[in-house]
C-alpha cells in the first residue's frame, strides 16, 4: 500500500510539470473572475474507467480553474470531492484559508481506481457534499456541483440527479465527448454540459465554465415582444395523467410572460389522433385567460404525428391571418414523449427557415436521435427524465426563450397562410 501511495503522489507531482510542456494554459493565464455568490463543489471521477491520467488531468484542470478565477475578495466558496465506490470530500466547501491553501489541499485527493458509481456520488454530494456551508432560506447561496468524468457510470444516474436538482442544486457536467449523453442526463440540459474531443482541449473550457457558474436564468420576458406557441403531445403514448403534467408546466411557463397584444402572445396546439388548435395567438389577451385555456386543452389519445402538428403550426397558427405579428420574434416549444417524432425534422426546419425557432422538450425514455434531428442545434433540446420533473427545467427554457439563444436565420420572420416570409 505504501508503494501504491508513493506512486500516486509521484504521479500527482509530475503531472503539474507535464501539462505545461504540452502547450496547455498555465497558472499565469489571463485572470478571470468569479464574483457571483455560490457554494461550488467539484466532483472528480477517480475510478478505473477514467484512468489515472484522466483523473490527474481533471485535478490539474480544477487547480488551474481556481487559480484563474478565485481571488481574496471572491464571493464564491469552493469544495472538492472525489469518488469511485464512495464519495470522499477532501476540501469541505469554504473550509480553507486562501486560494493557495485550497490548491495545495487538492494534493490529498488521490486516485482510487475502483468502480464508476456516479449516481451514488451525486446522491452523496447532495446529502453531505456541502457540509457546514449549507444554509437555509434566502441566506443560502446558489449551490453548484461540477462533475468531471471521462467514464460511463456503472450505476443509474437519472434518479440521483433528479433528486439532487430537486434539492435546488445546479448540476454542471465536464467530460469527454464519449460521455456527452450521460452528462446531459445528469444535468438535464445540453446547455449545462462542457465536452472536449481531445484531452488537451479540456483546459480551454475554463472560461466557459466560469461563464456558466455565474449566469442566471432571466426572470421572464416581461418587456419583450414575442409570439409563442406551445405544442403538446396528447397521444396515447403520453397518457392523460402525463398530459396533465404538461398542462401544469405550460401554465408555470406562461406565468413568466406579460401576456397582452403589445408584448407576448401565447397559443397552444395539441396533437394525437388529430391535430387541434386549442387556442390561437390572438385568442386570449390576458395571462389569466391563457392559464384558464391551457387547463381546458383536450387530451386526444390515439397515434400522434409531430411532423403533421408542426406543419399545422406553420400553415394555420403562425400566420398573420391568425394573429401572428410581423417583425416580432417567434418560437414553438414542443413537449413530447418522443414517439411520432420521426417525421418532424423537415417540418421543423421549414419553421426555422421562416424565422420561427423550435425548442424541443423530450420526456422519459425518448428517441434521442429522432429528437436531436428535430431540435436541430444541440442547445435547442431539453431532456426531462419524467413528466413530474418538467418543473425543474422551466427556468432554463425561459432563459432560452427570453435570451433569444436560438439558431434563427430570420429573426423577423412570419408566415402568411403559406411558406412566404415577411
Structural account:
- The chain has 422 residues and is α/β, with parallel strands linked by helices.
- The protein has two domains: 27-214, von Willebrand factor, type A domain (Rossmann fold); 226-403, von Willebrand factor, type A domain (Rossmann fold, 3-Layer(aba) Sandwich).
- It has 13 helices and twelve strands.
- The strands form two sheets. Strands 3-2-1-4-5-6 form a six-stranded mixed sheet, sandwiched between helices.
- Helix 11 packs parallel to helix 12.
- It starts with a helix and ends in a 19-residue tail after the last helix.
State the gist of this model.
The protein has 422 residues and is an alpha/beta fold.
Key terms for this structure?
alpha/beta, 6-stranded mixed β-sheet, 422 residues, elongated, Rossmann fold, single chain
Break the fold down into its secondary structure elements and pairings.
Layout: H1 2-21, E1 38-45, H2 51-69, E2 77-83, E3 87-91, H3 99-105, H4 118-128, E4 142-149, H5 158-166, E5 169-176, H6 180-187, E6 193-196, H7 206-214, E7 226-233, H8 240-254, E8 264-271, E9 275-279, H9 287-295, H10 306-316, E10 330-336, H11 345-353, E11 356-363, H12 368-375, E12 381-384, H13 394-403
Parallel strand pairs: 1-2, 1-4, 4-5, 5-6, 7-8, 7-10, 10-11, 11-12
Antiparallel strand pairs: 2-3, 8-9
Helix pairs in contact: 1-2, 4-5, 8-9, 10-11, 11-12
Amino acid at each position: 500500500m505504501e508503494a501504491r501511495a508513493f506512486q500516486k503522489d509521484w504521479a500527482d507531482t509530475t503531472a503539474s510539470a507535464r501539462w505545461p510542456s504540452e502547450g496547455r494554459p498555465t497558472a499565469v493565464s489571463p485572470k478571470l473572475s468569479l464574483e457571483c455568490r455560490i457554494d461550488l463543489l467539484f466532483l472528480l471521477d477517480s475510478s478505473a474507467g477514467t484512468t489515472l491520467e484522466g483523473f490527474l488531468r481533471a485535478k490539474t484542470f480544477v487547480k488551474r480553474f481556481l487559480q484563474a478565477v478565485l481571488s481574496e475578495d471572491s464571493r464564491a466558496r469552493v469544495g472538492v470531492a472525489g469518488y469511485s465506490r464512495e464519495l470522499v470530500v477532501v476540501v469541505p466547501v469554504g473550509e480553507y484559508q486562501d486560494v493557495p491553501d485550497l490548491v495545495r489541499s487538492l494534493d490529498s485527493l488521490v486516485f482510487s481506481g475502483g468502480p464508476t458509481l456516479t449516481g451514488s456520488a451525486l446522491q452523496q454530494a447532495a446529502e453531505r457534499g456541502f457540509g457546514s456551508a449549507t444554509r437555509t432560506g434566502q441566506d443560502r447561496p446558489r449551490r453548484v456541483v461540477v462533475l468531471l468524468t471521462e467514464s460511463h457510470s456503472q450505476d443509474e444516474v437519472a434518479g440521483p440527479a433528479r433528486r439532487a436538482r430537486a434539492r435546488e442544486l445546479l448540476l454542471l457536467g465536464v467530460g469527454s465527448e464519449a460521455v456527452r449523453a450521460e452528462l446531459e442526463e445528469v444535468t438535464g440540459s445540453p446547455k449545462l454540459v462542457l465536452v472536449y474531443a481531445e484531452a488537451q482541449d479540456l483546459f480551454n473550457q475554463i472560461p466557459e465554465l466560469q461563464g456558466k457558474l455565474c449566469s442566471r436564468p432571466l426572470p421572464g420576458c416581461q418587456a419583450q415582444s414575442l409570439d409563442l406557441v406551445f405544442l403538446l403531445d396528447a397521444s396515447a403514448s403520453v397518457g392523460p395523467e402525463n398530459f396533465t403534467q404538461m398542462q401544469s408546466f405550460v401554465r408555470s411557463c406562461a406565468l413568466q410572460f406579460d401576456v397582452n397584444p403589445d408584448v407576448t402572445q401565447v397559443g397552444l396546439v395539441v396533437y394525437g389522433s388529430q391535430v387541434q388548435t386549442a387556442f390561437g395567438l390572438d385568442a386570449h389577451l390576458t395571462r389569466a385567460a391563457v392559464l384558464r385555456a391551457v387547463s381546458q386543452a383536450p387530451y386526444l389519445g390515439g397515434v400522434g404525428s409531430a411532423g403533421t402538428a408542426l406543419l399545422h403550426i406553420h400553415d394555420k397558427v403562425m400566420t398573420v391571418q391568425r394573429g401572428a405579428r410581423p417583425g416580432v420574434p417567434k418560437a414553438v416549444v414542443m413537449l413530447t414523449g418522443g414517439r411520432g417524432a420521426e417525421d418532424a425534422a423537415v417540418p421543423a426546419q421549414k419553421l426555422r427557415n421562416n424565422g420561427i425557432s423550435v425548442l424541443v422538450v423530450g420526456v422519459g425514455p425518448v428517441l434521442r436521435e429522432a429528437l436531436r434531428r428535430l431540435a436541430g442545434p444541440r442547445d435547442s433540446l431539453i431532456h426531462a427524465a419524467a413528466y413530474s420533473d418538467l418543473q425543474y427545467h422551466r427556468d432554463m427554457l425561459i432563459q432560452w426563450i427570453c435570451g433569444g439563444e436560438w439558431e434563427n436565420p430570420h429573426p423577423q420572420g412570419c408566415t402568411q397562410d403559406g411558406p412566404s416570409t415577411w
